[in-house]
Amino acid sequence: MTDAALLELIGTAVAALLTIMVLSYALGDNAFFRLAAYLFIGVAAGYAGAVAWHDVLEPRLIAPLLAAGPAIVNDSTQLVQVVAPILLVILLLSKVAPTMGRLGGLPVALMVGVGAGVVVGGAITGTLVPQTLAAMGSLNPAGVAPQTGETGLERLVNVLIVLLGTVSTLSYFRLTGRGDQADSARYGMRPIRTPIVTISIPWPILPFLGEMFIALTFGVMFAGALSAVILVLVERLQFLAGAGNIILGGLLAAP
Amino acid sequence: MCSTLNLEEAETCKLCGSRLKPTGRLGTPSEEPGSQMRLPSTGELPPWLARLRKDVTGRGNLPPDLPPGEPSAPDSEELPLSTPEGGPDWLGRMRQAESEDEGPPEGEVPDWIAKAAPAPSPAPAEGEVPAWLARIRAKAEAEAPIQETPEQEAWPSPAAPEEATPPPAPSSPDLIPEPPATLGIPDWLLGNRPEDSPAAPEPEAPSQPSWLTVSDSDTTGKLPHVPALILDEAGALPPVRDEELGPISVEVPDWMTELQAPPTAAPPEARSNLAPATLPAWLEAMRPVETFRSVVEIEPEEDQTVEAAGPLAGLRGVLLAEPVMAMPRMPTVGGGRLEVTERQFAQAELLHRLVEEEQREAKARPQARARPPLLRWLVSIVLFVAAAVPTFAGGPAFPLPLLQPRELDVLASLVDGAPAGQPVLVVFDYEAGYAGELEAVAGPLIDHLMNRGLPLATLSTRPTGPPLAERLVAQVAARHGAVRQEAFLHLGYLSGGPTAVQLFAAAPTQAVFRGYLGPGGSPWLEPMLQRVHALSDFGMVVVITTGTEIARVWAEQTQPWLAGRPLVMVLSAGAEPMVRPYYEALQPKVQGILSGLPAAVAYELRLAAPGIAQTRWNGFGLGLTGVEGFLIIGLLYGIVAWVLRGRGA
Amino acid sequence: MRSGLHFLWTALAILFGTLVLAGYVLDSPALQSIRSLLMQWAVILAAAALLLGLVNMLSVHWNKVGAQEKGWPYSALLLLALLATFILGLVFGPDSSLLSALFNDIQQPVEASLVALLAVTLTVAGFRLVARRRNLASVVFAVSALIVLLGTGPWLVGGNGSFFLTMGELRAWWSQVWAAGGARGLLLGVALGATVTGLRVLLGSDRPYGD
Q: Omega before A204 cis (within 30°)?
């Protein structure tokens, strides 16, 4: 067995062992599961840090600085693209020390401000306006569904359902600043007297319909999530089966 | 001087013995209390009086502002007028309480004093009479023979001529009005006054000193005096009269004047209409019972302290300069009884019980034994067996889907219509844990793209994206014989979330500096990316993700820069509903969707290239069947339990 | 000094955010240059913030091991794995075979197994929901999930039959029309919330960057 094959065998065995240790949580919490979980967190954090350094910080800051040397101060482009970010990074890392943490407000303010601008711009131009126009434009009787090709009554019924769902779901949300209304009921039950019997209907009706549409949508998403994790479980069990074959084959093949 | 209420006709105070009426004055019953008194001049006064005046006031002469009509007394003696600045003149002339020793010398008793009539009614026994009253009575008896004569001198007025004669006797029987019918006050208490005094004399009677007359015609003969602060049962204060007090300021309260007034019987009809006043219960409850001393106790004269300093030196019964409240004293007997209602008592008991419970040591509850998670064990066993049986046993085999979803046709046409030679950007933005699902779903699409010979450039906004991209693309590329850096390459990791996506969309070459598994330099220098300077230089953008947030970010941030290039989403089954609105809009931001294993299997069938999706189809079907079974059983259980509970109720 | 810095950071955040936001509507080369520069700085700072998070995690578990709190051996294992992976990544690079092996043999299998465990958790949660909570929203949730599941997965019996095909059509109509209406409302609500949150930062009402 070559070294590469041996290393691959060891790696497969470790992966299979860790998979079994984690899946043992189905029987209950145990030390094997915790061991595997803590090992995973350490490796994942270390890997993320290595990637951040290797793919972003080192090529953007360290490599140009080392390449240019002291002459970097004469290059205005490098000053802006290299020296200024280095200073910002130093200020950000100074937040580790509480006494120096005040100066770290500048890089944080930059990240927060830029992030807020991006989010607001994207939300308005990418979602709010287009989705509102889509909801309005769908009421055009002569329109044709662009992706499904539906027309006529079928399209009209579908459009009305989508519109009702959109409006009622929005009416269920309460975007106010008053904390006392955060948990209050969106609707109540109103009794309606008929000659035969008194029935209770929810009022106002739109928030009630919105709650039902939200429950419906979450049910669809729940079903989708179940499908996804079942597929992952199948993949894990198939891996275990394959790993078992590899390990057994490797052990049998070993002299 | 001691502010004790005295009778109108009293000439000396019953408490301190101070003279209430000026000597020689012809007091008339018609005089109003506080009416302006006219002081005789110094020369007109008897020597002893003049001496007193001088000692008290500090000057011998009267003030020049005496009311007109009054003869001014010659300044026989300087009478010191030691009045305070701005204070009334009479204050400076107040006599001391122990004026008995400074009484008129022998033989110079004014006539009006001598004419004090004796008490006609028998006095009570000696033992029942207070000492101060006995003293007054004794004095009155001593002065009883003295009769008023009409030849009494009046108080001198500035205008009237004065005579240096002793002041005449006080009000004669003609001057002193008849005592009215007293309302219960015994005669012995009214013995200071001569009872048989006739009607009020005229103030201008020549037989009496002018200083005894009252210039104010409106006066009704009441002597002014300051009433003592004695509160009766009703707590009513005597009315304060807003009137000038004379030199001897003794104010007769209203109740005294009412006692003197002739009884005016109210008509019986009016009296019967008046119901006795009763306090309402709530008002009665507000009265502080036994917390208020309704009667100010006045110490007897001999127990009162003698003022030692100031203008009131030598007087008894002087109000203390210090507030009474500052003097420590024992609380009154029975003061401050709290009235508690039933509700308050109940609340107090409740609070007491709550505090008691807190102090009680809580018994240690026995720890409940943990029940085994039978349901979780059962579900785990069923799902593990269902997912593993097709893998280990080969069956059962589920039928492959015959119908292809509508979105698959659109997607396939997009891939077929992608411009040749232009690289396709594939974004791997999912967690390593979902690699099992998304590698199966995205596999056919990568296969289709490689089938068409389109170069692939992978990118990720997650640190684990590049190795995941390498796993899938390398696996598919191996089937096609594709070589890294020629058929596909990895742009690496892009940090910053939505900001990074916007930066890459606006200027891709300024966002990525180093690739993954590359030669080490800038990936933009590779041949397959040399013509790429903007996002629109890519033939297509494919985003593989499980999260709706990432899909929404890419759909929002990249649209303005794609310039018509299609954006395709490969999604986990749970994220499809939230991306669908971008796909079905009139101006869609997402041109293609691929979601779920059935769509991937259908794609593989369309391409006639079996892949990972079909290998997991049977396990997927059996596992999903197990889940559906549990949900249906749960639903039936819930319905049965609801029906049974409804029947039981 | 504290209040002055605070106002300075607020003013700068508002300035930067406004410049970036203006780039969505104004097409000015100078504005786009400044905008691109600001975003590059933000991208670099995001990577530095990731390293800062790593330092924080290191200190927390280091203190735990030093104080020998409950579970400290696990923290020691975490520290060992973190430092080993990070140092190896700095030395050899994340695209080296060693780091690839660490990723493929430790991180990916454990993470995938954790996701696989969700199958058991979600199924148990779904069972308890339909068996115990009986209100209209729960019923609609459960029925909707069942319709999608029955229409998604293959059937062992009657697969590809007419009823199965009808169920598939029902599932498509249910998820692509009924759920799409609710999803569009949710998307609009999320976008509104994100807009409000971003505007609060741009207007200085929210200052999450401290003093």
A: yes
